[in-house]
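Q: I'm writing up a methods section and want to include an example of the input and output format. Could you take the sequence below and give the corresponding predicted structure tokens, formatted cleanly so I can copy it straight into the document?
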Amino acid sequence: MFRSLEYHLGDRIDFSFVGIDVDRRALGFILAKMPGVELYEADAIRLSELLDETLITADIAVVFQCCYALAGQDTDQILKGLSRVAPTVVVADHIDNCFGVESSVMTLRDAADRVYEATCHPFAHLLAEAGYTNVCVLPATPWKGLTGFIVASRNPLPPCTQLEEHIAEAAQPEFAEAANKRHAIRKAAPAAAPVNSVSPSIDEALDEIAARRCRTVSVYGDRPFVEAFRTAVNATMADVDTVWFSGSFADVEHGARVLDRTVLSSECVVVGGPLARLYHPRLLRLMARTGTVRPVFPVAIRFSRGSRRTTGTRSTNDGCSCSRGKPWR
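A: Here is the clean output for your methods example:
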């Protein structure tokens, strides 16, 4: 699932992950594999207390192979707790009693035709009580702890057939191999335009844009940076049109576009904000894939470690921004 997210959207969307588990060993494993993940320890009862004490938000919550070992009341508490965190939840568990009215122990067979017993919960009913109005059930190859996925959301969902196609694709060995090698294959980048430069401030970036008489500008950054840039543009260059691009779900909800080739439809691109170090190489990779070059003006960025930054974001001694992004949104 995570591999599928990274493969399809990793170049355009910034993913951050929040892990909640009762097993410290599992948390340690996740931390070793994903050093940037934000981890909490909680069980079904502690989850509600954790959410009362800590602001945790996400776009998607994933419950992976844990409910089959829990009582119905604990499962209900987990789903209601996660409804406070995310508008969409994916439950990977036993779906055999999904549309039932109460939890029950069922006799099942796994992919090797072995018989086993597991507690199966009425997930559709529990998710509806938790406030999720749209539900899609997706069968999977049965295994102990998993017979399918339930995708539930307060928002409209894609057709189940589309979700089934994506899950089937991500399950193929070829997909895993391609995903692991994706970043190892590099297409030669086109020659950089001689007008590219690093501008210590928005005003100097505007001077560069004015000198080249650009009338359309793609702005790639977070909302505060784009608002500051547009304010400066409106004050001095009212005839310049800007288009906002960002890799943040929160920014997309406020009108930003996800990075794609249309960012190169403008005459130049300005990159700025606390994630500019991440956005700039993404933009260059897009230019390499499309064979299209535009003048790029990264605002107040030095790409060598230890350099001084002059943006308004708070920085550490080694020059790395320490402005903390929101949890997975």
